[in-house]
Amino acid sequence: MQGIKEAFGHDIRQDTVKKHMNAFALMDPNKTGRINVKQFAKGFGVAMSNDLQHLFDLLDNDGSGEIDFREYLLGLALLNESKDRSGILKLAFQVFDSDENGQMSINELTSFLARCGYGDVDAHSLFKEATAGQQKDGLTYDEFESLMRKHPEYMKVWTDKLEKFG
Ligand SMILES: [Ca+2]
Ligand SMILES: [Ca+2]
Question: Which end of the chain is more exposed for a tag (fewer CB within 10 A), N or C?
Fold first, then answer.
């Protein structure tokens, strides 16, 4: 718990990130910056299976068929700390804030929901709910967090799948 906070939280420690970058580099011998499902399985020492493919698809945030380092970091946190909801939320926010402006736009919220299996949910009305009707370009982390506390089902799909994965 503390280790993950240090690794992924605000006071991110350089040596821990480096350690993860090295682990990622080992799975990415051709240095493409992305790993495919076979490299992922090999890196974690697990056999290919439907469950593994589902997990991989879940982590493959943009559906590219490969995991980049940001997606990988989120995956690690989910695997290690699937019960640490606020840690997962913080990472989810970072990963889905794809333009890294510290706010989750409606488009980013839409892709977050889609990856959680809620592609049919109206992101606009959720967004309105989170901002209490204010005109805003994006949700802050605090707004995103309280929205997810009101709708825990959106995060549940991640933790449930990961629990099945073991
Ligand atoms: Ca990807
Ligand atoms: Ca953003």
Answer: C
CA of 37 to the centre of ligand 2 (A): 27
- 100 C-alpha to ligand 2 centroid (Å): 5
Which pLDDT does position 10 carry in this prediction?
43
Distance between Cα 135 and ligand 1 center (Å): 31
Q: Domains along the chain?
A: 2-165 (1.10.238)
Render the chain in DSSP notation, one character per residue: -HHHHHHHSTT--HHHHHHHHHHHHHH-TT--SEE-HHHHHHHHT----HHHHHHHHHH-TT-SSSEEHHHHHHHHHHHH-TT-HHHHHHHHHHHH-TT-SSSB-HHHHHHHHHHTT-TTS-HHHHHHHHHTT---SSB-HHHHHHHHHH-THHHHHHHHHHHHH-
Q: Which ligand is nearest to the CA of 104?
A: 2
Q: Give the predicted TM-score (pTM) of the model.
A: 0.61
